[in-house]
Amino acid sequence: MMRRKRLGGQSPLGHAIEASPPIHGHGGSILIAMPFDPTNSHDVIVASHSGPLFGEVVVPGAKNSVLKLMAATLLADGTYRLTNVPVIDDVDIMADLLEALGLRITKIAAPRGEVGQHLEIVNSGAIRPVAPFELADRIRASVNVVGPLLGRFGEIDIALPGGDDFGGRPIDMHLRGLEAMGAVFDVTSDGIVGRCQRLRGADIEFDFPSVGATENMLMASVVAEGTTTLRNAAREPEIVDLCEMLKKMGCRIEGVGTSNLVIHGVLPSTLQSVTHCVVTDRVQAATYVAAVAMCGGSIRIERAVAEHMGMMLSRFTDMGISFQIDPAGIVATAPQRLSSIDVATLPYPGVATDYKPLVVAMLSIAQGVGIVTENLYPGRFRYVEELRKLGADISIDGHHAVVRGVDHLRGASVVAPDIRAGAALVVAGLAAQGMTEISDVFHIDRGYDDIVGRLAGLGASVTRIRPEN
Questions:
Q1: What is the SS3 assignment for 348?
Q2: If you placed Cys at 104, which of 122, 189, 242, 334 could pair as Cys (CB 3.0 to 4.6 Å)?
Q3: Which CATH number belongs to the domain containing residue 403 in this structure?
Q4: Final residue of a domain: which of 229, 249, 277?
Q5: Per-residue confidence (pLDDT) for residue 160, from 0 to 100
Q6: Euclidean distance between CA atoms 302 and 57, whole angstroms
Q7: Is the CB of residue 166 less than 8 Å from the CB of residue 40?
Q8: From residue 50, how far is each of 286, 294, 417, 426, 433 by CA, in Å?
Q9: Is 161 inside any structural domain?
Q10: Which keywords describe this protein according to UniProt (predicted)?
Q11: How far are the Cα atoms of 105, 195, 240, 249, 276 from residue 436, in angstroms, in the given order?
């Protein structure tokens, strides 16, 4: 019999996690980590005022998909191959984490005609569900090994989670979902202890369609005993990509692409390793749309999937950008000047929060006044102060940004606070008069595969330098 549990609180940010009764005997621990503070990269990106952009840019696979696909290889023994993998730091960090757990990972250069790289991942079954703190602390996606490891091995010992710091992103929905399936967690001042016997199917409803919680519950439930139903699940293209790989492995999932997923658990021994091509990164594609929109010109974005960007492309069209769409990609052509719009972030198929820094940068030189509302992470406005250094006229009112378009931006020294905001600052620098220097570009490296080379290939005046000590 399935047990139904509703997950979440009064807001998408959730409530503080409440401690369960103490665990005695064996079990693992999940330590809540402070954000990682990199000290090994002092590179800066220098962007100068650029004329119209032209040409073609090929977009690689999605960061927000590949990290979860890598975690899914923990579920079954065998040799996996992931293709269209972006060459980004988060993939390297996730590979280090998975190797610490017992996988063997080889990076292979993509053949001629492809972008990114291939990953060969060998799971010999010799998994040690304990990962070094310093690895798990560096990447938000480390949380996604909890589901497959608990589902297959019944224990976990890993620090959680690192990655971008732009407001509260609690993991309570992940843990409560696993509790509903039979896992037990104890929250202490030192972290979280968790263990279980074989997970059991449950009927779970999310108050909010959390992407991370949906992914974790998917990977746990595919090897659980019985049937699990996930209601109000997230349905981003990256989740569909994960479902498609899991189904190829032999998992039984119904409702893919909808908000209600039904998963019939199977034994891990019945699953098989697979080859899978990572879905294209829709946020990287939108970044190059923003670049041509702010600089002028017309570019082709090869491998962009318009269907995955539907709402954002619609809002871009409202700003005056025109698109030609075909199965292989899109052509984006800039207007003489962008028009202001009002936009609010929402779960997919709405406008994703990752697009928002790009939209704010575009609105900063658009005609009129635009209001951007952040419904998912109200604290994600740290980059606004950096755009103001470039001359942007932006005021913050709660979770709203009021952007008054100016005639032009001016170059300045700015700091990238996270992945997407860093990319938005690079794009804004291309439209600013003079020179813009962006530091802390290690954030950008975590999610963008050679953004400088790709922009330069379109004619942008941008370079990366390493200052002398």
A1: coil
A2: 122
A3: 3.65.10.10
A4: 277
A5: 58
A6: 6
A7: no
A8: 19, 10, 24, 12, 9
A9: yes
A10: Cell cycle, Cell division, Cell shape, Cell wall biogenesis/degradation, Cytoplasm, Peptidoglycan synthesis, Transferase
A11: 38, 50, 38, 47, 39
Tell whether 316 and 268 lie within a shared domain. Answer: no
**Same domain as 171, residue 183:** yes
- Domain co-membership, 352 together with 221: no
Between 159 and 92, the more confident residue is 92
Note down the domain range covering 266: 4-40+61-277
**Inside any domain, residue 330:** yes
365 in the same domain as 269: no
Number of residues in the chain: 469
Asked if residue 155 belongs to a domain, the reply is yes
Comparing C-alpha atoms, which of 246, 259, 248, 183 is closest to residue 218?
246
The amino acid that residue 223 corresponds to is V
Q: 273: part of which helix (H) or strand (E)?
A: none
Strand 191-195, strand 184-188: pairing: antiparallel
Both 234 and 339 in one domain: the answer is no
**Does residue 362 fall inside a structural domain?**
yes
Distance CA 21, CA 69 (A): 33
Strand order of the sheet with strand 191-195? 158-160, 28-32, 191-195, 184-188
Distance of CA 372 to the CA centre of its chain: 20
Last residue of a domain, one of 216, 245, 277: 277
Q: What pTM was computed for the model? A: 0.90
Q: Can you tell me the distance from the alpha carbon of 321 to that of 292, in angstroms, rounded to the nearest whole number?
A: 9
Q: What is the pLDDT of residues 13-32, one digit of tens each?
A: 222 222 222 222 223 323 32
| pLDDT tens-digit map of 213-238 | 999 999 999 999 999 999 999 999 99
Residue 1 is predicted with a pLDDT of 36
Listed residue (288, 302, 332) closest to 451, CA to CA: 288
| Structure tokens, 91 | 């993939």
Count of domains forming the chain:
2
Cβ(250)–Cβ(179) below 8 Å: no
Shared domain check, 308 and 172: no
Task: List the catalytic residues.
Answer: 164
